[in-house]
Design goal:
With 573 residues, this protein is mainly alpha-helical. The protein is 69% helix and 4% strand. The strands form 3 sheets. It has a 3-stranded antiparallel β-sheet with strand order 6-5-7. Strands 1-2 form a two-stranded antiparallel ribbon. A two-stranded antiparallel ribbon has the order 3-4. Strand 1 and strand 2 form a beta hairpin. The longest helix is centred in the first third of the chain and has 90 residues. It is elongated and about 180 Å long. It starts with a helix and ends with a helix. The relative contact order is 0.09. About 2% of the residues have low confidence.
C-alpha cells in the first residue's frame, strides 16, 4: 500500500488545529458574553441604586406630607379659631358681626312675611263681593291683633317650649330674648317675631274661606282658640326638635317652611270653619245665585304682594344668611311661575274660572314648593310647581260643586279658594318633598312614608279639633251675621228667597246672629220650646218689638209687623 506523506501531514494538521480554533472561538465568545454580562450587571446595580435613592426620596416626601398635614391640623385647631375670634373682635369694633347679619336677615324676613297680611287683604277683598270689602278687611286685621297677643302669651311656648313627650311645649310662655336664646334658638326675639308672622299667616287663611257671612266677634273667639289649640300643637309635633314627627322609626318629617305646618293646617281650619258657618245664601241652590268678585285685578295685586313676601317666608326659614338663600328663593319663584302657566292652560281647556284658577294656581305652586325648597333642584321645583297647578284646578272644581256625605248635603263654600290652594297643594308639596328626598343619594321610600304620616296627622288633628272649636263657638255665640248684613243691604233680584217667605235672623246674647232660611224654619225652632200657637205668636211678636229678630221680605227690605202677622197666619193656617 502506497502512502502519501503530504496528505498525511495535512490530515494531522487539521486534526490538531481545528479543536484549537474551536476552543479559541468559544473562549472569545464566552469572554464577550462575560464582558456584556458584567456591563449589564453594572447597569442593573446602577438602576438599583437609583431606585433606592428614589425610594428614600419618596419616603422623605411622605414624611414631609405627614408633617404638613399635622401642621395644617394644628393651624386649624389653634390658629383658625384665634383668627375667627380676631375677626369677630374686628366685627364688633366695626359694629357688625356674623350673628348680627343672621339676625338682620331673619328680622327682614319676618317683615316680609308680615307684609303678606296686606297681600291676603288685597286678594280676599278682590275675590269677595263688593259690599263685603270692609268686613273682609276687618277680619284680616283681627287675625293680626289676636295672634300678636295669643302667640306671645302661650302659642310660642306650646310650639317651641321644652316638650312633654313630643306632644306639646311646657315653657317659654311670655318669652324673653334671653329665655329663647338660652333654651331654643340663638336668634332670640328675631326668631320669635319670625314665627309670630307665620302663625298669623295660618290664621289669615281661615278668614278668606269664611268671608261674607261670619260675624267678627265669634270669629275673634274662634281665632283665639285655634291659635292656642291647633296651630301651635301641630307645629310642636313637626318643628320642635323633640316633636314626635321629628323621629319616626329613624325618619324625620321634612317641612322646611310650612306647606303642612302653616298652609295645610290653615286649610283644615278653614274646612271646619266653613262647615260650621254654612254656605252663603243661595251659593249651592238652583237656580244658583251669582257671586261676582269685587275685582280680580285687585286680587292679582294681592298675589304679587304675597309672592314678594314669600321670598322672606321661604328664604328666612333658613334662619341664617348663607349661600343657600338664593337657591331657595330661585326654587320658590320657578315653582310659582310653572304652576301659574300649567293652571292657566289647564283651565283654558274647560273655559271655566280661568282667571281665578290662574290666580290660585300661582299661589298653589308657591305653597307646594314651601316644604322642600331647601332640598329641591331647580328642575324638580319646576315639576313640583307645574303639577301643583293642575292639582289646584282639580281641587277648585271639586270644591265648587255640592256634595252628599252619608245622605247629608255637604257644601264647602270657600270664598277665597283657600282649601284648594293651601290644602290640596300643601298635601302635594309635602308628598313631593318626600319623593325628592327618597330619590336622593341617601334616601329611600321611608321618607315618603313619614311625609304621608305628617300629612294625615295634620288633616285629622287640625280638622277635627278646629271643627269641635267652631261648633262650640256656633252653639254659644253663633257664627253668622244677620241676613241683612250678609246681603249688604242691596236689593239684588238674584238674592230673592225662592220659597217666597220671610227670611229671619235672630240676635244672640253675645252679639251674633242665628240664621234661618225662611219663616217656616224659624217657627219650627220657636215651637220647640213654645209648642202652643198662642205662645209661639207671643214670642215672635216680642222678638220683633225688642229688635232682637230681623224679618226680611223678598225684595230684601225690612218686614213690617203686618208682614210678620201675615206670615204667622199663613203658618198656623
Amino acid at each position: 500500500m502506497r502512502h502519501n506523506p503530504r496528505g498525511f501531514v495535512i490530515y494531522l494538521a487539521l486534526i490538531t488545529l481545528i479543536p484549537h480554533v474551536i476552543a479559541q472561538t468559544v473562549e472569545t465568545r464566552v469572554g464577550n458574553l462575560e464582558k456584556r454580562t458584567g456591563e449589564h450587571t453594572k447597569k442593573l446595580e446602577k438602576h438599583d441604586s437609583q431606585i433606592s435613592e428614589l425610594g428614600e426620596k419618596a419616603a422623605g416626601a411622605e414624611q414631609k406630607a405627614a408633617a404638613a398635614d399635622a401642621k395644617a391640623t394644628q393651624l386649624q385647631n389653634q390658629v383658625v379659631p384665634d383668627l375667627k375670634k380676631k375677626m369677630d373682635e374686628v366685627g364688633e369694633n366695626s359694629g357688625v358681626t356674623r350673628r348680627d347679619l343672621d339676625r338682620f336677615w331673619v328680622l327682614l324676613a319676618a317683615v316680609l312675611v308680615f307684609f303678606m297680611q296686606a297681600g291676603f287683604k288685597c286678594l280676599e277683598v278682590g275675590v269677595a263681593r263688593r259690599e263685603h270689602d270692609t268686613p273682609v278687611g276687618l277680619m284680616n286685621l283681627m287675625n293680626w291683633l289676636v295672634l300678636c297677643v295669643v302667640f306671645y302669651v302661650a302659642g310660642f311656648g306650646l310650639m317651641f317650649g321644652a316638650t312633654f313627650r313630643g306632644w306639646i311645649g311646657v315653657d317659654l310662655f311670655f318669652p324673653t330674648a334671653a329665655a329663647v336664646e338660652s333654651s331654643y334658638h340663638p336668634l332670640g326675639m328675631e326668631f320669635f317675631l319670625f314665627q309670630l308672622a307665620f302663625a298669623a299667616t295660618a290664621a289669615t287663611i281661615v278668614d278668606g274661606a269664611m268671608a261674607e257671612r261670619t260675624a267678627l266677634h265669634p270669629y275673634f273667639i274662634g281665632t283665639v282658640l285655634c291659635g292656642l289649640l291647633v296651630y301651635p300643637v301641630f307645629g310642636h309635633w313637626a318643628w320642635n326638635p323633640n316633636g314626635w314627627l321629628k323621629n319616626v322609626g329613624g325618619y324625620s318629617f321634612h317641612d322646611f317652611a310650612g306647606s303642612t305646618v302653616v298652609h295645610s293646617v290653615g286649610a283644615w281650619m278653614s274646612v271646619a270653619g266653613v262647615l260650621a258657618a254654612g254656605p252663603r245664601r243661595f251659593r249651592f241652590t238652583e237656580p244658583a245665585g251669582e257671586f261676582r268678585s269685587n275685582s280680580l285685578g285687585y286680587a292679582v295685586l294681592g298675589v304679587i304682594m304675597l309672592w314678594f313676601g314669600w321670598w322672606g317666608f321661604n328664604g328666612g326659614s333658613q334662619l341664617k344668611y348663607d349661600g343657600s338663600i338664593a337657591s331657595i328663593i330661585l326654587n320658590t319663584n320657578l315653582a310659582g311661575a310653572s304652576a301659574g302657566i300649567a293652571a292657566y292652560y289647564h283651565a283654558r281647556r274647560s273655559g271655566n274660572n280661568v282667571a281665578a284658577k290662574l290666580i290660585g294656581g300661582v299661589l298653589g305652586g308657591l305653597v307646594a314648593i314651601t316644604a322642600g325648597c331647601d332640598v329641591a333642584s331647580p328642575a324638580s321645583a319646576l315639576v313640583i310647581g307645574a303639577t301643583a297647578g293642575i292639582v289646584h284646578n282639580l281641587a277648585f272644581d271639586w270644591i265648587s260643586r255640592p256634595h252628599r256625605l252619608f245622605s247629608r248635603q255637604v257644601n264647602l263654600d270657600d270664598v277665597a279658594g283657600a282649601i284648594p290652594v293651601h290644602g290640596a297643594c300643601g298635601i302635594w308639596g309635602t308628598f313631593m318633598t318626600g319623593v325628592v328626598i327618597a330619590l336622593g343619594p341617601k334616601g329611600n321610600f321611608g321618607h315618603v312614608a313619614v311625609q304621608l304620616l305628617g300629612i294625615a296627622a295634620a288633616l285629622i288633628y287640625a280638622g277635627l279639633m278646629s271643627w269641635a272649636l267652631y261648633w262650640i263657638v256656633e252653639q254659644i255665640w253663633g257664627l253668622r251675621v244677620s241676613i241683612l248684613d250678609e246681603d249688604g243691604g242691596l236689593a239684588d233680584p238674584l238674592l230673592i228667597d225662592y220659597q217666597g217667605t220671610l227670611r229671619v235672623s235672630v240676635l244672640r246674647a253675645w252679639g251674633s246672629w242665628s240664621r234661618f232660611r225662611n219663616f217656616a224654619e224659624y217657627m219650627r225652632s220657636v215651637q220647640q220650646h213654645s209648642p202652643g200657637a198662642r205662645q209661639a205668636r207671643q214670642e215672635v211678636t216680642a222678638a220683633l218689638a225688642a229688635g232682637r229678630t230681623q224679618f226680611i221680605r223678598e225684595d230684601d227690605t225690612m218686614a213690617t209687623e203686618r208682614d210678620v202677622n201675615t206670615a204667622l197666619d199663613n203658618h198656623f193656617n
